[in-house]
Structures are given as C-alpha cells and as structure tokens.
C-alpha cells in the first residue's frame, strides 16, 4: 500500500462516524432514560436508502448487547452509546446528529457530507407511469450530479402524456449555464432514458435566482 493510501485510510479511521451535538444529545438522552434498561440502551442510526440526493435514515433505540458483532459501537459525551451497522459506516462517516436549525421543526436531523453515488442515466431502472419514471431519473441520476453545484431539478408536470416541464432551483436558478445544462444535459438524459418523452421544457424563472453557481 502506498504512503498516500495509508494516510487516507488513517484519516478515515480518525474521522468520527457520527458526532452528536449537545442539543441533540440532550433530546436523545431524555428519550433513552425513559427506557426500562436505559444504561444498556444505545441509539442505532443506519442508512436505509436514498431520498433524492440525500441518504434516508432510521434512528431507533437498541439494546447495546444485542448489536451486531461487526457494528461500530462507541460512546459519545453524556454517556450515550451510538450503534452504526457496518454497512452504514462509510456512508455516514463525518456526519453530525443535530436538532433542526428551524425552531418550529421538531425531531432530529443528520448533517451528512456524503451523498449517494451518482448513477448514469443508462443504469437507472425506471418503472411506473411517465411522471414516475421522470421523477426516478431526477432522483437517482440527474439531481445527484446537480447537487455538486448546489442545484436541483424538479418535475413540474407532464403535458399531453409526452411533454415534460422541469424546474431548476438552488444554484441552478439564475445561473448563466443552467439553460445549457437543461438543453444539453437534462433534456438529453430524459429523452434518451424515456423514449415516450417528446419534449422537455424549462419552467424556471431564472431572473429570480439569488445564488447561482456560475455567473
């Protein structure tokens, strides 16, 4: 193994899988302490799939002694044991469990620097109605690529069973490159992957963009 590969592996090993903020820790401990065997109860966090350009998670309380042998089990401040199943470790490394920044929003949030792998449009298996196929293609292939520039594309509607209207947002709204991205990238991807689509229309109000990636 080269020195570079060794250094990278060492850095990965030193990076916490999931950190917990004080605010989130307080909330989790409050729930955990209501369990019958609180001292032997940990917080299990695992990736269960993807939702657009983000991972989808499941958080639950689990008996520490019953955790899988290959799971990452460690204690964070305040006496909370965190359990991360082995197949979620790489996808979650460097994440932080926190409370939402919006005080009106309840629950917990996971701020994860990692993103699901980007699939080539030809690798995405599409099924269902035409709108469902377009949405699947956006979620699995197009939006993960746009996320690198802080942008996304969403389906507005399907007209006459063949004309797709797409809205671009985030860093793509107001971006001088976004019209080209739509015509040369998104449009081509949609029409190649879904032959029944005859036209892709940009429904974006680009004059309203406030933070384009390209100017």
Overview of the structural elements:
- The protein folds into two domains: about 5-110, Sandwich (Hypothetical Protein Aq_1857, Chain: A), CATH 2.60.300; about 120-210, GMP Synthetase, Chain A, domain 3, CATH 3.30.300.
- The chain is elongated and about 60 Å long.
- Helices cover about 30% and strands about 30% of the residues.
- A four-stranded mixed β-sheet has the order 3-2-5-4. Strands 1-6-7 form a three-stranded mixed β-sheet.
- The chain has about 220 residues and is of the alpha/beta class.
- A hairpin with a 3-residue loop joins strand 8 (about 150-160) and strand 9.
- The longest helix has 17 residues, at about 130-145.
- It has helices at about 5-15, 20-30, 90, 130-145, 180-195, and strands at about 20, 40-50, 55-65, 70-75, 80-85, 95-100, 110, 150-160, 165-170, 200.
- The model is unreliable at about 5-10 and about 210-215 (pLDDT under 50).
